[in-house]
Hints:
Number of strands: 15
Largest sheet: 10 strands, antiparallel
Strand order of the largest sheet: 3-4-7-9-8-13-14-12-11-10
Mean pLDDT: 93
CATH class: Alpha Beta
Helix content: 25-40%
CATH architecture: 2-Layer Sandwich
Shape: globular
CATH topology: HIT family, subunit A
Order of helices and strands: EEEEEEEHEEHHEEEHEEHEH
Strand content: 15-25%
Structural class: alpha+beta
Distance between the termini: 33 Å
Number of domains: 1
Radius of gyration: 20 Å
Amino acid sequence: MPELRKDPITQRWVIISTDRAKRPSDFSTSRVEIRGNGICPFCYGNESKTPPEIIAYGGNGRAPNTPGWNVRVVPNKFPALGIEGSLDRQGVGLFDRMNGIGAHEVIIETPDHQSTLATLPHDRFEQVLWAYRDRMNDLKNDHRFRYILVFKNHGEAAGASIEHTHSQLIALAIVPKQVSEEEENARRYFSQKERCIFCDIVRQECAEGSRLVAENEHCVALAPYAPRFPFETWVLPKQHGSAFENEPAAVVSSLADMMRNMLRRLDSVLDHPPYNYVLHTSPVGEERNDHYHWHIEMMPTLTKVAGFEWGTGFYINPTPPEESARFLREAES
């Protein structure tokens, strides 16, 4: 029989449609293949085809915007928001408006067009995470920004317009609604119980085991109790951490190992699916707190959002998280 499950963090209900239960082989996904057609602006030798780099790792002594880098961060050539100007908040009758101020950057994760995050060696994956961390810490110095979101679209079906592996960062003058809801509910839970709800979930899932996928010294990967999407997986630090950008090197290294592990498992179980991931961390100016716990939400693109989801806010998930966790747990990473 189908189940309704409520996410304890967002208070969002989902339908686990057990009557439609699907195994990995039941999903008809567009396998992500790197074809390498045409001239890629993210490849070695094409540095002039992007805006001037903000930072780059690797290639000590190289001139900016030349080959020799391992990870390169550049402004998005077609930004969603503009970096220059003031917010100019206004009320227009009962409506609110402000200028579209923000930062939009691209993290080019490797110069190798055929590589993916899953195939990068550990040290190169870790450099990608350090790029996230360094850019977040730099952008936090801009008093206009309230939130910095890091996200990745892998594969055309997941929204990637360029196949060369990359992720993106957008700094916003407002806290996104989804993050705000998570943060407010976590704050409410803490005020009632004087414990972090994410920490409680990590402890319970590690003890119970059915939705646990993997763990290492500092991080854990689990299928959330009420996932929106089949094979949705969250990666969290085991110890309380309210802001990703404040984590020490040991946690960043463990996170690189865990994320690489999980992406390889997804490739193995789902045959190289398109996917998205997002990094949720505390808002700017609220980085040190006891109630919110940064985490990464990884979501393979296996189903489509349609009329029911748009009309209700409910998601229908045809794969119970206990099943998806088992498939991922048994996969080779």
